[in-house]
Design brief:
The protein is of the alpha/beta class. Helices cover 41% and strands 23% of the residues. A five-stranded mixed sheet has the order 3-2-1-6-7, with helices on both faces. Strand 1 and strand 2 form a beta hairpin. Helix 4 crosses helix 9, helix 5 crosses helix 6 and helix 7 runs parallel beside helix 8. The structure holds adenosine-5'-triphosphate and magnesium ion. The site of adenosine-5'-triphosphate has 24 residues, from helix 5 and helix 6.
């Protein structure tokens, strides 16, 4: 039986977030998420439960585009080595993701990073579609609000009807905080993710969250969408669901811990009998 979402996300926190290792049930599938803010390598078992993972902040990708190929390859190789050593298993293949809307060349670059890190690239999938492999939404919109981009997948009867994205995300919240408070970007990032500071900062970041909501409203315009499901690290900012929901005109919700939903979903596409969206938008 498929484990429930709460169990999967708690296991993601334990493995990717805190470096714990779980005994895999059956085989192991691997996902690589080259993010603007964080790069993640995670292994899941036959139940789709994460068994080991590693993540590191890096600036090798910007708005879905690999801007430092050598750095990205090195980083993924190190994260792979880390996960492999902890599991005591070789990791020979992986699926990877890209934001919807990037060109075919950018998608190929992601493949070359995975291959350069010593794994066969078994599948390439767009981020919100990957996220939905975990959420299992059949009708509505899944929105990945990461560090650099806001990407949306529109679902109807379990099928992905459309994927779209735009370059606004958590980095923009950080920059606004830095400007408003007259502090460095590093300090702004620290305050933004500190639960003790977030309520006070909501007023500062509200215009950016409004903009994200307007972007989502544009993405779902013309589609029958009754609920928006927010994932990605920026969706962890308390209050985002209400603001995005009000701006896009459809109720928005956030699963318990939205940070690792997309990388987990990517791993489910590695060698699995799932439909793979291997093509980029034109
Ligand atoms: N608890 C939190 N509250 C608010 N923001 C958070 C929290 N945790 C992480 N973030 C922010 O989420 C962003 C990273 O999210 P994520 O890992 O989903 O992005 P990414 O995959 O690196 O970027 P992208 O998908 O845009 O390429 C960063 O901007 C980070 O500051
Ligand atoms: Mg991401």
């Amino acid at each position: 039986m498929r484990p429930d979402l709460e169990t999967v996300l708690a296991a993601a926190d334990a493995t990717i977030g805190r470096g714990e290792v779980r005994e895999p049930r059956g085989g192991v599938r691997v996902g690589v998420d080259l993010g603007t803010a964080y790069t993640v390598v995670v292994a899941v078992d036959d139940d789709g439960l994460p068994v080991a993972g590693a993540t590191r902040p890096a600036e090798v990708v910007r708005d879905g585009v690999v801007v430092d190929f050598v750095g990205a390859r090195q980083l993924v190789a190190e994260l792979r080595e880390d996960v492999s050593a902890r599991l005591g298993l070789p990791l020979e293949s992986a699926a990877a993701c890209f934001p919807p809307g990037v060109g075919a060349g950018e998608v190929q670059a992601v493949r070359y990073v995975v291959e350069g890190a010593g794994m066969a690239c078994s599948a390439l999938v767009d981020e919100p579609t990957a996220a939905n492999a975990v959420l299992g939404i059949t009708d509505g919109a899944v929105v990945d609000v990461g560090g650099g981009t806001t990407g949306t997948a529109i679902l109807r009867d379990g099928q992905v009807l459309a994927t779209l994205d735009e370059p606004t995300g958590g980095t923009h919240l950080t920059l606004v905080i830095a400007g408003a408070c007259g502090i460095s970007v590093d300090e702004a990032e620290r305050r933004k993710t500190d639960p003790a500071e977030q309520e006070r900062l909501l007023g500062v970041v509200r215009p950016v969250l409004d903009k994200i909501g307007t972007i989502v409203g544009g993405h779902i315009n013309g589609h029958r969408v009754e609920a928006v499901h927010l994932v990605g690290g920026t969706s962890a900012f308390p209050g985002i669901a209400e603001i995005v929901g009000a701006a896009c005109g459809v109720p928005a919700r956030v699963p318990g811990n939205p940070l690792f939903v997309t990388p987990l979903g990517v791993a489910l596409f590695d060698g699995a009998a799932l439909p793979v969206t291997a093509k980029a938008s034109p």
